[in-house]
Amino acid sequence: MGRPIRLVLSVKKFFCRVPECPRKIFTERLPDLIEVSWRLTKRLREAVQEIGFATCGKGGERLGDKLAMGVSDATVLWSLFLVPLPEVGQVHVVGVDDWSWRRGKRFGSILVNLETHKIVDLLADREAESVRAWLAAHPEVDVVSRDRGGCSIDGATQGAPQATQVADRWHILSNLGDAVEEFLIRAHIRLDDAGAKPEKEHVPDKPLSSFSATPACQRKSQARLATQMETL
Q1: 122, 108 in Cβ contact below 8 A?
Q2: Of 49, 123, 160, 178, which is the most buried if we count CB atoms within 10 A?
Q3: Within a 10 A sphere around the Cβ of 169, how many other Cβ atoms?
Q4: Among the residues of 109-194, which ranges form H helices?
Q5: Which residues are bridge partners to 100 per DSSP?
Q6: Cβ of 55: how many Cβ atoms within 10 Å?
Q7: Which of 98, 90, 168, 165 is nearest to 127 (CA)?
Q8: pLDDT tens across 120-164, in order?
Q9: For the domain 93-167, what is the CATH code?
Q10: Cα–Cα distance between 116 and 23 in angstroms, integer?
């Protein structure tokens, strides 16, 4: 009701009389209310974790203040690390790709169970040896979906020789898009312009046609199209 509440718990303490005991004092546990060394009750910790999963550190801090849960962004993020990870279990179709621990600085490998669409592991780097070791520990893998990077190919080949390797969806769509773009460019070059003006009339030069959506893709298409024009 808008009022701060402080819980003061009185627990029993036990003292060990064995001189060799590394822990001299034992305190009564309250597992239904709070975990060891926690400053939040289990109920509040679970609520903070749900906020963290739905938002982020700073966002969770702002939302917590609105809900009368005065926690910092560090507490929100640290609470997420306390969530127990589910068991990996049997993985028959796994996807391997890169992901960034720190954007542009440090990269790792992410492994996803493509049957359940859940992350099963995060590797510290994106080396072929790390991927190989993980796949070797899961001989039940039947299909490996990967990108065209050398580490993924080598890791999958060495770690799961029994598995079938396929390109992931992003690269398939990227390859399809490139093939369609090249076809449209070739078709546009070969088509006669029925409404062309007489040669004596000066027509200003226009940039080569490109069907790409982004400026970077347009520049790439322009360069490829210019090369094709030179060879025709």
Answers
A1: yes
A2: 160
A3: 11
A4: 128-136, 150-159, 169-190
A5: 107
A6: 16
A7: 98
A8: 888 888 888 888 898 998 889 999 998 877 788 888 888 888 888
A9: 3.30.420.10
A10: 44
